[in-house]
Amino acid sequence: MIVLVMGAAGCGKSAIASLLAERLDSAFLDADRLHDAASKAKMAAGVALDEDDRRPWLEAIHAVLQQHSAAAQTLVVACSALRRSHRQVLGRNIDELRVVFLDGDPELLARRIRQRHEHFFPAALLADQLAILEPPTGEQALRLDIGEPPPALVEQIVDWLALATRPPAAPNRQDIGQ
Ligand SMILES: Nc1ncnc2c1ncn2[C@@H]1O[C@H](COP(=O)(O)OP(=O)(O)OP(=O)(O)O)[C@@H](O)[C@H]1O
Ligand SMILES: O=C(O)[C@H](O)[C@@H](O)[C@H](O)[C@H](O)CO
Q: From its record, what is one biological process in GO terms (predicted)?
């Protein structure tokens, strides 16, 4: 199973996804690690990525997801995946993709970005992220409010995953042989 933890900058993708991976005893990928140097420099200079920048990055993330999916290994990935088309690239040929959308007030997102140190992403780019964000609809997704503390968010994700992966109920006796 692949669990994608997504949302705009500062929503807590890295924090929540890494805690979740620990809780599930699974692999963890922070998609920001796969940005090339040019993309990181671009964002650090206050310029938002465009779709040409994102395409090879999304493909590189997808390759990691596919390896884990093919090996039937659980992987939790923290990735902004703002547009539906981004999630379509990530989910290509992946049997079990679960999407967790960390949603929250823009003011809180901005505050969390500003509080952070040693990160390439400037708060000034948040407006661009929110402008292109397409919240998941009709995808297998759980929406959570980032106002809650990380452990509470992680427990809600664990409960939701358990429900989503529970096998279908066995047929009752009447169904058998009919
Ligand atoms: N639910 C939460 N409650 C309080 N603080 C949080 C919560 N989630 C994350 N944080 C803190 O907010 C800041 C931003 O979180 P984090 O870096 O995980 O966000 P992100 O979505 O990965 O951001 P980016 O996409 O820019 O890398 C961090 O300092 C983190 O510790
Ligand atoms: O698609 C994008 O615009 C980028 O991936 C950003 O989302 C950053 O990587 C991230 O949010 C900062 O960590």
A: carbohydrate metabolic process
The mean per-residue pLDDT over the stretch 123-133 comes to 92
Residue 140 has a pLDDT of 75
152 conformational bin, left if phi > 0, alpha if psi -120 to 50, beta if neither? alpha
Could you tell which of 51, 129, 146 is best to mutate to test the pocket of ligand 2, judged by most ligand atoms within 8 Å of the CB?
129
Beta bridge partners of 2: 75, 97
- Point out the ligand nearest to the CA of residue 78: 1
Q: Which atom of ligand 2 is nearest to the CA of 54?
A: 1
Does 150 sit in the ligand 1 pocket, CB within 6 Å?
Answer: yes
Instruction: List, in order, residues 6 or more apart from 105 with CB less than 8 Å away.
Output: 147
Q: Is the CB of 121 under 6 A from ligand 2?
A: yes
Give the tens place of pLDDT for each residue, 30-86.
999 999 999 999 998 999 999 999 999 999 999 999 999 999 999 999 999 999 999
Domains recognised in the chain with CATH numbers: 2-162 (3.40.50.300)
